[in-house]
Amino acid sequence: MGHGELRGVVALDGPSGTGKSSAARRLAATLRARYLDTGAMYRAITLAVLRAGVEPTDTERVVEVARAAKLTQTSDPDASRTLLDGQDVGAEIRGPEVTLAVSPVSAVAEVRELLVEHQRAIIADALATAGGIVVEGRDIGTVVAPRAELKVYLTADAQARAQRRTKQDTASGRAATVDAVLADVQRRDAYDSSRRVSPLRPAEDAVELDTTPLDLPGVVAALLDLVEQRGLRVVAVGG
After folding, report:
1. In what order do the strands lie in the sheet with 87-88?
2. Least CB-packed of 71, 121, 192, 200 within 10 Å?
3. Structure pTM?
């Protein structure tokens, strides 16, 4: 892929429906940087747990499944793929069964330790080979990459987030209603912000960005401004 225009790590955190994933991917593509969707990794482990017939609340067996799973997360923003035991599960991990089970699975300390180690390895490789990476999730600025050069915490009104998620689900062929998605958004907010390990919260030095009034290009433009303000964008002469 070669070196792009971003130097360092951009950490994007925030709850579901803030436009985090779409913005992170678009930002990385714009800067020719790497991109890491950490949420997809937790979803893939959750899928492995469900396939094994293990209850998401059975901590001991969840850890066993997580350790045995062969998980690969690629970092090309134009072709990000999530592979579980060699199979592309990118579509399956967005289904309702995984969505309902991902919070308890991702709250298991041993699972988070395992995946954080994996995520840090991907980040290190990206910095060495591409120069920069945009990482999105719920604990990037606080746990995964606490020394990130730029940390942004995305927020949005719950109703707006539910409408966005419903639109995304419908576009992907998944049945969804705003009311049902709103309930799920609120459930995940409560679960993720109150869990004992790596709760959802902004890092102390994060810039908070309310995406409620913004469309995707607007969010990306705001993020690009922050990248440039921090001096993290390096454009080659003649580029």
Report:
1. 71-73, 82-84, 87-88
2. 121
3. 0.89
Q: Is 239 annotated as a binding residue?
A: no
Residue 27's contacts (CB-CB under 8 Å, 6 or more residues apart) are 10, 33, 134, 220, 223, 224, 227
14 is in an annotated binding site: yes
Q: Is 21 annotated as a binding residue?
A: yes
Q: Is 15 annotated as a binding residue?
A: yes
Domains defined for the chain, CATH in brackets? 8-229 (3.40.50.300)
Report whether 146 belongs to an annotated binding site.
no
The conformation of residue 34, written as its DSSP 8-state character, comes to E
Alpha-carbon distance of 234 to 232, in angstroms, equals 6
Cβ atoms within 10 Å, residue 94:
16
CA distance 25 to 75: 10
Helix (H, G, I), strand (E, B), or coil: what is residue 64?
A: helix
Q: Using CA atoms, how far apart are residues 47 and 70, in angstroms rounded to an integer?
A: 12
Tell me the pLDDT tens digit for each residue of 15-37.
888 889 999 999 999 999 999 99
Percent of the chain whose pLDDT exceeds 90: 74
Alpha-carbon dihedral 132, 142, 81, 177, rounded to 10 degrees: -130
Question: 80 a known binding residue?
Answer: no
